[in-house]
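ok so i was messing around last nite and threw this chain in just to see what happens. nothing serious, just curious
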Amino acid sequence: MKKRYLTLIVSALSILCFMAGCGHNDAMKDNPSKEIDKEQTVLNENDSILDSTILLLGNNITLPCKFSKFGDIRFDSSVAVITENNGLYGAIYDGDYRIGRIIIDDYGADDKDINDKMVTYLELKPDFGFDDIDVEYHGFTYKTSKNTLIESLGNPDEEYDNNLCYYLEDKGYAEFEFSQDFTEIESIKIKTE
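result:
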């Protein structure tokens, strides 16, 4: 009985892989080595273009960095959450406006001053949009469309819902979330390791 179910499952998976191509397109069937080279070329081109530096409110910030590099941006630790890696995930503010969230690594319960703590994740998603925030990532602003981003950077390494994700050269990613019509960026996320 177990053999019958196992055979049935293997057969079903084989059919699904054949129909879906196991995630590869038809060009791969003709010449797999050329398709792999093409994918690696795009990845290498993206990696050489993208890094973890963003211009935020007049400050060039390269993650990972000490929180002090964020200048006058304030971190709200009152509702922050401890991550599974002993980091601290919480909101950042420019004046009274929440502009996003960060993760601070190696946060201890006794830490009073976070200025010397390292920030490894930045998510810019202002409560009231990007209209009043000076932000630029490799020349892209919140008014950048999906098509413009892809024309400049090539196809993303991952795409889902309204998000485009590009892997960074030094491990990590830059992710752009777009409005439903893909005409404006709603959030920018940068994660480093």
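not much to say yet. The chain is about 25% helix and 35% strand.
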